[in-house]
Amino acid sequence: MGKATITSNPTVLAAVVNAASASYSGLTAKLDYLSAGDVEQVRAAYRFADQAHLGQLRNSGEPYITHPIAVAAQCADWKLDAQALMAALLHDAMEDCGVTKIELIERFGSPVAELVDGLTKLDKLHFNTREENQAESFRKMLLAMARDVRVILIKLADRSHNMRTLSDMPRSKWNRIASETLDIYAPIAHRLGLNGTYRELQDLAFKHLKPWRYAILTKAVTKARSRRRDLIQKVQKEVDAVFVAAAMPVRIAGREKSLYSIYTKMQLKHLSFAQVTDIYGFRILVPGVIDCYKALGLLHQLYKPVPGKFKDHIAIAKLNGYQSLHTTLVGPAGINVEFQMRTEAMHVVAESGVAAHWLYKVNHPDIGSDRLGSQWLQSLLDIQDETHDAAEFWDHVKVDLFPDAVYVFTPKTQIMALPRGATVVDFAYAIHSNVGDHTVAARINGEQVPLRTELKNGDVVEVVTAQISSPNPNWLDFVRTGRARSKIRHHLKTMEQTESESLGERLLQQALRSEGFESLPDVDPAYLPIWDKLLRFSGNKTRHELLTDIGLGKRIANIVAKRLVLLLTEAGHKPDALLLTRERFTASDSNGVGAITLDGSESASVQFAQCCRPIPGDKILGYLGRGEGLVVHMSDCPVALKLRHKDAERFIGVDWSEEPVRSFKTGITVTSSNSKGMLAKMATALAAAEADIIDIDMGQEGRQEDRQLRFLVAVRDTAQLEVALRNLRHTPSVIKAERSSGANAST
Question: Is 95 a catalytic residue?
Fold first, then answer.
């Protein structure tokens, strides 16, 4: 909240010191659950904070130190530990007083400094929109960024006190602070089960957002309370009598609906105040879980239940651990009265939620966790008993609060929620598929990062795009979101079909040349009957589909070509005798189909077989696998030879371009003595040949003198591979180096 500088007037200074002392004495009265040593540590933190904030006033004119004291007092009401109380007293010291984290570590220890640092980071986050889904994301981001639950609890105590004193702030700030409280902090309090804080924050926000309506509703509730006092007393007397007759020890307390919940009910259901019938209710606290159901039975015998108004939150607890039986009964004079039945343990959880983790153990040290009504709370207390680790406790809570997720900002402060482990590429596709498809680089918090970088809560992510860029198949190795994966696969599949169609057209055209026709018939009305008959023959719907099938190996180019020649001949077209003679004279032995030239620019439509890993300089042949496109093998590859024996018509001639545009993968097997630094020496030898190491398999480590290593390297051609092998053979400790492939070719 706002602060001002204090004057040097001695009288004012004395008044300030007295006010702060009185305020701190109120805090110490609440610390009876701490040990003497812990109380002394809290006192030391108070003295440090008091000195740090010396000379600062709140807008109300009070010394600024009264705010940290009030925050610590709220934490003491929740029975938080000494570290949390110290952090509450120091929570503004880093941000407002120039105190460093190192200084806090030296004076109060690392845990306290980490809590203060966490609070300082949360204070730097600003929510600037009323959009509902952004508010939800912001709430989750706050929770995700807090590595310790105590950070959130102190933050809620801080917000509660700021809201109680909001009237001292300039009226121009009321709307923003109250809206943020209503949208962000009240729901967090509710999610953590802090129902008392939740109701207070809502009512205070309502008071400052809509002061006129708040005032009118306050008067109406006060009048109704006075009017119905006799009725409420009568109900309580009758209920008391029922439980006394049943010999059931209970504690009965009145419960009044909060002003904000009355207002929202009137708004949502379009009711007048007179039509809201459940303003007043009763809470029945009983010894055990079974007693809750007994109490329900007794009440249903006393008054008639309203149909459809019974809820069993004991059998099915709310996610924040809340448990109670709710029923609405028709009381005297036909007035509906709500009753809630719960045990003392459930009541602690209902009012304090996560804070019950500390509170219940302090207030009920003699009752074991097996008596607790909430399994959720029980599991948290078990963790505290076993580890006393607040961070582990918070991790357990967060699993229930939201599944693994990270919350990051776009450069325009929009919040994006992504699965934990999501990368920059996932973020790009979450913005838009067009952004993802053209991503080339990224910056996180202003720094250049690799695209595979995993995102962390609170990161500001900026994606750099270029229209010439397209998805990389390697992205599939690290993306986490289904959206990114499906978009990348869709793009690659589209690209594969386009390339397959182009390859199919080349194959069919070459097959047609070997039959004496220079080129494929044009797509014009004169040739449409020929294409229609050819498509009926092949079973394809379109020319595009036919050519794609040829490129994928689902159709054999020379068979389709022979059928096309027959159709062309029937239509009166004759083959070129000179072209026919030349093609047959120069044709390879691969079914008379001319060779396809490869330069490495082919991607999805052409695959290089992993059984032999061909590279430029090797003799190769192509196999049109069914649905696989063109698979390139070395000509002496045993796998290819076996396929050729069974399926000869699917093989076509392929050859290397004179200038391949990229490098190709191949294998090298090295046998060496088991000496120190051998791997480094081999890597140096390969680097000297400019061969890129992609993978290394060192096999099983053993005590034998010799080791066999398998390298997967990228080289331009067989000449570069020969240089790499020669360098390896001249390396000390290397016994043998050879190319490894399906053909076992040794170079």
Answer: yes
* CATH number assigned to the domain covering 405-480: 3.10.20.30
Backbone angles phi, psi at 514, to 5 degrees: -70, -15
Active site residue 96: yes
- Multiple choice CATH, 3-209, 3.30.470.20, 3.40.630.10, 1.10.3210.10, 2.60.200.40: 1.10.3210.10
| Beta-strand pair 596-598/439-444 | unpaired
Q: What is the pTM of this model?
A: 0.50
Place of tokens 């006192």: 43
Determine the Cα–Cα distance for residues 535 and 567; give it in Å rounded to an integer: 12
Strands (E), 257-404: 280-286, 304-305, 311-312, 325-330, 336-343
pLDDT digits (tens, 9 = 90+) for 588-643: 444 434 467 787 766 556 788 888 999 999 999 888 766 566 788 998 898 888 88
In angstroms, the CA 354 to CA 319 distance is 12
Catalytic residue among 38, 77, 81, 95: 95
Whether 341 has a pLDDT exceeding 90, the answer reads yes
Of the residues 77, 96, 168, 722, only one is catalytic, namely 96
Backbone angles phi, psi at 669, to 5 degrees: -110, 130
Stretch(es) of the chain classified as CATH 3.10.20.30: 405-480
pLDDT digits (tens, 9 = 90+) for 628-647: 667 889 988 988 888 888 87
* Interatomic CA distance for residues 1 and 3, integer angstroms: 7
